[in-house]
Task: structure prediction
Amino acid sequence: GSFSGSFEGLGTNITDVPTTISKTLFVRTTGDNSTAPKTNIARPWASMREAVGAATSGDSVIMEPGTYIESPFTLSSGVTLKSLGGLKSTTISASNNSATFITQEENSRLEGFTLVCPSGAFPGISYDNVGTGTIYDVTLKGQGNSIGFQIDETSATSKVIYNEIRYGGGDFDKLLYIKGGILACDGIHVPGGGNIDKVYHMEAGRLQAINTNAGNPNVSSSFYIEGGTSVILGTNLFNVQEAFHVAGQPYVIQGMNVYIDDNVPKHVTIDPGISGSNSQINFIAAHME
Result:
């Protein structure tokens, strides 16, 4: 928009300044879903679920700082959900522990907030599409046996690019669950806090993990492998109870610049009955004793 003309005085109480931004929906904890249109920052939505439901491909839903308790919703193809103040000022919490919280579709983007995941068997973010989704700078917080992120589309063209993942406390069964498709992630930070049974649980598909840093003594297993291909670059594991656990096959594990501190009790565990047929583990420039 634009403003033209002139005024005298202090310039207060100006009402003619444009307040609209094209293809943008604004969400505020004090908003009103019944009066909120698209584009108007002065008339925001109260619920991101409602705002996302009104968005179409190419739209951005911008959350102002605050805590939002939301019912499950789907982030449609081509829509971006982003916080205005970043992950430290905006929290989204699941109100329902009996359903997947955020279902992400292809070409959508999640950015810059803390996500409190459901407890139990339903993930905080689920991706099951042919195409690519993007997640950037999202902290995952558990409520008890939670699943943070899950991808389970079997197609090789199903992919999520996830940059800057942080564990924000609470208990997880799986922080990142790969049941199929491709998860390409860069910058995974798992400091101390609650209990995490598995940082990565790999069943099928392909994991491309770069710059994993885990130092939580309550991590039972950092990489739990039951199949698929895992390409692991630039990994630093310390204080965790176990680095790698092979529990199924066929699998491929390719690791480069993997550092496992001497204080990790179990570096590589292979379950009885795993023959290694059609499977391989290769580590280059690795520290493990």
About this structure: The helical segments are 48-54. Residues 48-54 form the longest helix (7 residues).
